[in-house]
Amino acid sequence: MKPLLPVADAQARLLDAATPVTDVDMVSLDLADQRVLAQDLHARLTQPPFHSSAMDGYALRATDAPQIGSVLTVIGESAAGHAFEGRVAEGQAVRIFTGAPVPEGADAVIIQEDAEVLGARQIRTAFQVTKGRHVRPRGQDFVEGETVLKAGTELTFTDITLAAAMNHAALPVYRKPLVAILATGDELVPPGGAPNPAQIIASNTFGVAALARKAGATVLDLGIVVDDEALIRAAIDKAIVAKADVLVTLGGASVGDHDLVQAALKAQGMELDFWRIAMRPGKPLMVGSIGNMQVLGLPGNPVASLVCSLLFLEPLLHKLSHRKPTSRETTALTATTLKANDQRQDYLRARITGQEDGKPTVEAFTKQDSSMMNIMAQSDCLIVRAPFAQQLGVGGECVVVRLR
To answer: Which has fewest Cβ within 10 Å: 97, 101, 313, 325?
Structure first.
């Protein structure tokens, strides 16, 4: 039997085989959050489109107020959406409001707190006026035709606001990768069902689907299929017909008498890349491909399934959807003694207990069985124990994978 594949090698092989999606969707601004821009975005207008006032006050010529106490005649008003149509001449000023166009001839704004009103049509300056003061020049933000947002930008609320200001109602973004999820096993019953004494509630699909959506994917739930190779093959066909980018299977990837997934996948044309990883939990992980669809066979145990999703499915989807690689890993100090490890890389569920020397302190849970989702839900991180790691005492530095 081949030796178990190290985790880092398995991750590298999975990602090296991944090709980012190339299809482009045009989506409205309200649907663009967290999508990845597929093309450079150019401004369709100049912003601001005119010299505008940054404050409420009076627009004037700086040369007409060379010192404090200068008196000017107010000849009109400029408000947002309602520009003053005339020209400011010598000794004149225009009442102006924030965002309003600065009238022709004016080159400064004195704020209203610094202008003493002498009557219905006169003001006296109470502050030194300088040219350009409180005036936002035309094109200060961007100019028509300028490349403002670059392809590959993962759009945030600020980017979407900027795109709207550039006069774009819809944006070209990469299509979300489609992830098909197939759960298998006679023992599985959907949540809300009534399991018999030999059955359990199927939970993995929902956590894996949530993680996939958060990583930028669309999810196709293929449901639960019993241990029947023909039915499993039919479900795999649905993923192929739907042109899924990734098929995730849950359970049944080992080689026991009732583990039929690998055989069904091979019958449908899967080329197996690798199988069985030197990790705990998650040893039965399987990776292959059917045409352009990548196949990720996850263990049936809920914790193992989610750990593998974090380590393999999430980075795969980030690459497929053109997102920048991110890492959940950081360093921490262990609050308890960690025993020596064997040949498999361990991922211990743990909680953060405090902070010391600028690093979090973490405590591994006593029970680490890969079927115990209650402990997984209470965990803040996973402590990574490398193969053959020596015992680590309290206060020792360790690598952790953040869950949140």
So the answer is: 325
